[in-house]
Please model this.
Amino acid sequence: MNDSLNGREPGPGVATRSRLTVVSGPSGVGKSSVVGELRRLHPDLYFSVSVTTRAPRPGEIDGAHYHFVTRAEFDRMVEAGELLEHAEFAGNHYGTPRAPVEAALASGKPAVLEIELQGARQVRAAMPLAQLVMLVPPSWDTLVSRLTGRGTEEETVVARRLAIAQEELAASTEFDAVVVNADVRQAATELLTLVLTPSSD
Ligand SMILES: Nc1ncnc2c1ncn2[C@@H]1O[C@H](COP(=O)(O)OP(=O)(O)OP(=O)(O)O)[C@@H](O)[C@H]1O
Ligand SMILES: Nc1nc2c(ncn2[C@@H]2O[C@H](COP(=O)(O)O)[C@@H](O)[C@H]2O)c(=O)[nH]1
Model:
C-alpha cells in the first residue's frame, strides 16, 4: 500500500514515503524537550503547531509554541472540520490543524505531532499507517519531579495531570514504539530513527 497520505490514496505526483509520527506520553515526561531536540537534529521535518484554549505560559509565543485561540474559535474550527484531531485535556482544549499536516505529507515531508492520548487514538483511527510513539519516564518519581520542577502549573493542576498520566502510561501497549526519556539527546536520536523509518506496508 502507498503510505504517503497514511492510508488514503495520493494524488498524481505525490511523493510516496513520507509518514506521520505521533509523539505522545504523560504530561511532564519531556515531549516538548525531546521534540525540540529532534527539530535541532533535523529542521527539515514538519512539526505541527497545535491550537489550544489554554493561556500562554511565560515565554510561550503565539504561532510558535501554539496558536492560542478562544473557545469560540476552537469550536468553529471543530465544526468546520479544520482539525485533524482534538481533545480536552485537564480543563483545556487542544487540536491539530489539518491542512498544514496534509500539505507536508503530500509534499513528501515526514510530519510530527506532539499530542495527548485521546488525540493519538483519533489519528490512529483516521490514518492507520501513522506511527504512534510513546515517550515514557525512567520512573514514576522522575515524572513527578519533572512536572512539579517545571513550575508552570498550580498544585491542583499538577495532581490532575498526574492522574491522567497513570492512564496514559497504561496505554503504552497501543503504541508502535516506546522511547524512554532518560536523556533528551538520546531520546531525540531514537525518535529521529523512528520518524525516518518508512512504514513496512
Ligand atoms: N531527559 C530529561 N532529563 C531531565 N529533565 C528533563 C528531561 N526531559 C525533560 N526534562 C524537564 O522536564 C520538564 C518537563 O518537560 P517538557 O515540558 O518537555 O514535558 P512535556 O511532556 O512536553 O510536558 P506537557 O505535556 O505538560 O507539555 C521540563 O522542565 C524539562 O526541562
Ligand atoms: N490531542 C491533542 N493534544 C495536544 C495537542 N497539542 C498539545 N497536546 C497535549 O496536551 C497536553 C497538555 O499540553 P500543555 O502544553 O498544556 O502542557 C500535552 O500532553 C500535549 O502533548 C493537540 O493538538 N491535540
User: Anything to note?
Assistant: The chain has one domain: 20-196. Confidence is low (pLDDT under 50) at residues 1-5, 7-16. The domain at 20-196 is CATH 3.40.50.300 (Rossmann fold). Residues 25, 27-33, 146, 149-150, 181-184 surround adenosine-5'-triphosphate (ligand 1) (CB under 6 Å).
